[in-house]
Amino acid sequence: MYQNKEDLRLSTMHTGAKALALLVGSALALSACATSSDESSESDGGGTTAATIKLGYGQEFAAYNMVTEDGPSLANGAVLNQVLRGFNYFDPDGKVTIDTDFGTYEKTSDKPLTVKYTINPKAVWSDGKPVDCDDMVLTWLANSTATGEGGFSSAAPAGYEQMKKPQCKAGDKEVTIVYTEPFADWDAMFNWTSILPAHIVEQQGGLTKSIIDLAAKPKDAGLKKAIEFYNKGWQLNPGTLKKDIMPSTGPYVIDSWTAGQSLVLKPNKAWWGTPPKSETIIFRFIADDAQAQALQNGEINIMKPQPQVDIVNQLKNLGDKVWYETGVEYSYEHLDFNFKGAFADKRVREAFALCVPRADLINNLIKPQAPEAKIFQSRMLYSFQPGYDEFVKGNGHEAYDTVDVAKAKSLLKAAGKTKVKVRLG
């Protein structure tokens, strides 16, 4: 979801008085999109276009930290993808791509697996603090040895758990990572969701030592307050911004937020890369089924709702007033199990999975607009990528394609359960 040549094609397709609707397409580069004809697009002389992009979005922003167990969501990612940056991102073809604005990295050894990272010397947080070794050590610490009961909350510890403590000292812009064992996705680590401001955690946690110093003792009692802040301090109530503890490393900062209505991004004055194309980006929180009307009324000029046949038909009825496209993208719906409580027993998890109507969801919601759609059986390859059918053959996931209540009951009985209360968040 970063600005690149592929994404710029969106701006060339917007002509005349037509608004732009993006339904289910490739990644959206917010800083590269066109504006409606009634808005200014004059340059301010510094590379930024004095334009306002109004995006309709169905879910509201909720957290600055996306990598805790409570943080991952598309709604958070949509806002943060140009507020936070990291060493890599996925391009429109799904390829891991180095974000050279942020820095570079290279594998220097296979035995042991060793990767050298170089942070852009110009890279700073929007509050003026440099991006450096401290931030990368926090990423490692919060997703590896200090996780678990009473520790940092991590939604994606894989990879970081295989790393030794980053080799660097305070203020360093070069960081060496050595793995204790091979890790296939080494080139996707330290991405834009994972690198957060260590100086804020240190400040809010009342630390007298740096994260670098404390990383050698991840269970140190002195980390307790910092861990609590990392886990919960960046979770936000609607409309409540904490600008002083939510700095940016991207071309935009979060400027304002009106609960239930909108969130506004403005250019980051400390941004060292190519100036963003748009002066203002407004996320307008509008239910998916109301976005086509909002588009017609000029309340928004871009929309990207969940795929629904009714919405496609609404856009078709608007005729040449809008441009839209449908298609496949690198995203999928999923259920994530908490391995605690009743779900600590694998049989209970399996029983629940056997009650999820995967086939019905595909047939009723997706196939009416994408007849070739199929149940997704892998998190590594997408169904439209070469080799998918071979990759998923025999992995056993097809056992959960259709609902099997009888087998689910049998598994619950074997687990000694007659009734299980399940909460979905």
Topology:
Layout: H1 5-12, E1 19-20, E2 49-57, H2 74-80, E3 88-90, E4 96-98, E5 103-110, E6 113-119, H3 133-142, E7 174-178, H4 198-204, H5 211-214, H6 224-233, E8 252-258, E9 262-267, E10 278-285, H7 291-297, E11 302-303, H8 309-317, E12 322-323, H9 346-353, H10 358-366, H11 388-392, H12 405-414
Parallel strand pairs: 1-12, 2-10, 2-11
Antiparallel strand pairs: 3-4, 5-6, 6-7, 8-9, 9-10
Task: Determine the fraction of residues in helical runs and give it as a percent range.
Answer: 10-25%
Strand order of the largest sheet: 8-9-10-2-11
**Which band does the percent of strand residues land in?**
5-15%
The unreliable regions are: 1-46
- Tell me the quaternary state: single chain
- What does the radius of gyration come to? 23 Å
Describe the overall structure.
With 425 residues, this protein is α/β, with parallel strands linked by helices. The protein contains twelve helices and twelve strands. The strands form four sheets. It has a five-stranded mixed beta sheet, covered by helices on one side. Helix 4 crosses helix 6. The longest helix has 10 residues, at 133-142. It is globular and about 55 Å long. The two termini are 26 Å apart. Mean pLDDT is 85; it is low at 1-46.
Give a concise summary.
This protein is of the alpha/beta class and 425 residues long.
